[in-house]
Design brief:
The complex is a heterodimer of chains A (about 240) and B (about 325). By secondary structure, chain A is of the alpha/beta class. Chain A contains nine helices and ten strands. The chains are: A alpha/beta (about 240), B alpha+beta (about 325). The structure holds adenosine-5'-diphosphate and magnesium ion. Magnesium ion (MG) binds next to helix 1 of chain A. Chain B: This is Putative glutamine transport system permease protein GlnP.
Chain lengths: ~240, ~325
């Protein structure tokens, strides 16, 4: 479903250029859940953002469901419909109600009728357990509720892949569970997911593979049981010692 | 002192009242000094006045009958050449003839009065509609220019910067002259069109900067969320960024519009009869210089403060989603 070959992303701002993603190759098959962990600044977000074209990469290849993002004939907007993304800070549209947040892109991107979009939105809000907040504005919701709306908003496009960039890092501890539950259910239903997170419990229970990133490179790629009990890389070991 | 005490306000209100009173007295003394005679009674007629329409006899003849009917009287004239009797209606207190009087064709019989809009009201109206139209066009220009200013295309960006710098770096009065005497002559524009055009271009440049700042103030995450859902750049702008940006820049935009109402007084230099020009014209005939200028100032003040109130109300309504 996701195929990445020798991906390179360089930020060349002031000072010396940063190789945020440095020659990364990996694959995620259909229905697989991959968790990406690593220290802050290791390039996890940048890698994830390259997968839906939010970040233009410098070299390499990203292929989503057979479509090459680097191809000049590829319409990135059509690829993005198939790739949902959930952000650390939710990024709900504050001037739209919860319900409108979930229907808007269905209407203008998927060109669904109002009836179709409304039914889909209601079903998804029910699924993430927040239907009663539909007429509210996002500012009236708790962080956990906002993140669940953001997940529903992404799911409304019927994506084939979901990307999560630290979806629980901005939440108060008591709200982390409700968001992880929704993600776990999604994984059980067979969604292909790439998740950047520091929730080791989630990685252990839900992920098929754990990727450990440091300094723009994937240093270790292993099933969670293996990774958490016997990490090969010294840097992965050091990282795990810090977070566990 | 951490303990909060009720602070005593009334002496300060008293002081404020005293200062304002002092100003008023100063004004009064100053006008006494120059022996100015206030003629406030002359002002209202420039808002509304009663025009007299003289009713003239359409034929030569004799007044045959006068039929008073309250404020109006019906006057019948028997034509000298013996045709059908003609009747006219005039206001009783303007009646100039008695029964039996001979009248020639065109002689005044009396008059009918009706209310007419005076030059001050008319000027106020011109100021309001010119400001409104040029503000609307300016908002549109500003929106387009603001978007161009942020465009990745260097040509669009350069044009926008050029236009904004050109307008912001020259006085409005000079722009009005150039627009009227140069562009207006080349394109054969009506003076009203030239005036509105100059004001719209002027306000457009300032609006563009306000809108640019508004767009830039919207968090990047909003654009990223919209784009990640598959929205195009244009859809993201119209559905996500602009609505939030416009809401945020409503106060400075309204301030710009309020300034426009005041700045519009400059179009009086190309002989557009706005509120300021009306004021100047009235003074030449009324000799009530101080009164008229004070009235004109008050009218501007009333319009701008009404707008401020409207803005206040709008902001409260828009605050719903916060
Ligand atoms: N827009 C940007 N401009 C310049 N440097 C950036 C930008 N975004 C990220 N970086 C740099 O790229 C590196 C990787 O960042 P990021 O992908 O956000 O790491 P992570 O998500 O793992 O914390 C960091 O060194 C960061 O400073
Ligand atoms: Mg990150």
């Amino acid at each position: 479903m996701i195929k990445v070959n020798n991906l390179v992303k360089v930020f060349s701002g002031r000072g010396k250029p940063i190789r945020a993603v440095d020659n990364v190759s990996t694959q995620v098959s259909k229905g697989e859940v991959v968790v990406i962990i690593g220290p802050s600044g290791s390039g996890k977000s940048t890698f994830l953002r390259c997968l839906n074209g939010l970040e233009a990469f410098d070299d390499g290849q990203v292929i989503i469901d057979g479509v090459d993002l680097g191809d000049s004939k590829t319409n990135i907007n059509i690829v993005r419909r198939e790739v949902g993304m959930v952000f650390q800070h939710f990024n709900l549209f504050p001037h739209k109600t919860v319900f409108e947040n979930v229907t808007l892109a269905q209407r203008i991107v998927r060109k669904r009728t109002a009836a179709e979009a409304d039914a889909k939105a209601m079903a998804l809000l029910n699924k993430v357990g927040i239907a009663e907040k539909a007429p509210e504005y996002p500012s009236r919701l708790s962080g956990g509720q906002q993140q669940r709306v953001a997940i529903a908003r992404a799911l409304a496009m019927d994506p084939k892949v979901m990307l999560f960039d630290e979806p629980t890092s901005a939440l108060d501890p008591e709200m982390v569970g409700e968001v992880l539950d929704v993600m776990q259910q999604l994984a059980r239903e067979g969604m292909t997911m790439a998740v950047v997170t520091h929730e080791m419990g989630f990685a252990r229970e839900v992920a098929q593979r754990v990727l450990f990133m440091d300094a723009g490179k994937i240093l270790e790629d292993a099933p969670p049981a293996e990774f958490f009990t016997a990490p090969k890389e010294p840097r992965a070991r050091a990282f795990l010692k810090q977070v566990l | 002192m951490p303990l909060k005490r009720p602070s005593v306000q009334w002496p300060w209100h008293g002081l404020l009242a005293l200062i304002l009173l002092g100003l008023a007295i100063g004004l009064w003394v100053a006008t006494k000094r120059v022996n100015y005679e206030w003629r406030w009674a002359r002002v209202p007629q420039y808002f509304f006045y009663q025009a007299e329409d003289t009713q003239a006899a359409p034929v030569a003849g004799t007044i045959n009958k006068i039929n008073p009917n309250g404020a109006y009287s019906q006057v019948d004239i028997t034509p000298a050449n013996g045709g059908q009797a003609v009747s006219l209606t005039v206001e009783t207190d303007t009646l100039k003839v008695k029964i039996g009087d001979p009248v020639a064709e065109g002689d005044g019989i009396g008059a009918q009065r009706h209310w007419k809009i005076g030059p001050l009201s008319w000027g106020l109206w011109v100021t309001i509609w010119i400001s409104f139209v040029s503000g609307l066009i300016g908002l549109f220009i500003g929106l387009i220019t603001g978007l161009c200013r942020l465009s990745p295309n260097p040509a669009l960006r350069g044009l926008a910067v050029f236009y904004i710098e050109l307008i912001r770096g020259t006085p409005l009065l000079v722009q009005i002259f150039i627009f009227y005497f140069f562009i207006g002559t080349v394109l054969n524009l009506d003076r009203i069109v030239a005036g509105i055009g100059a004001l719209a271009l002027f306000v457009g440049a300032y609006t563009a900067e306000i809108i640019r700042a508004g767009i830039q103030s919207i968090a990047k995450g909003q654009t990223e969320a919209a784009r990640s859902l598959g929205m195009t750049a244009a859809q993201t702008m119209t559905h996500i960024v602009l609505p939030q940006a416009l809401k945020r820049v409503l106060p400075p935009l309204a301030g710009q519009f309020i300034s426009l109402i005041k700045d519009s007084s400059l179009v009086s230099v190309i002989a557009i009869t706005d509120l300021t020009k009306s004021g100047r014209e009235i003074i030449t005939s009324s000799f009530a210089t101080f009164e008229i200028w004070f009235t004109v100032a008050l009218l501007y003040l009333v319009v701008t403060s009404l707008l401020s109130q409207l803005l206040f109300w709008l902001e409260r309504r828009f605050a719903r989603s916060d």
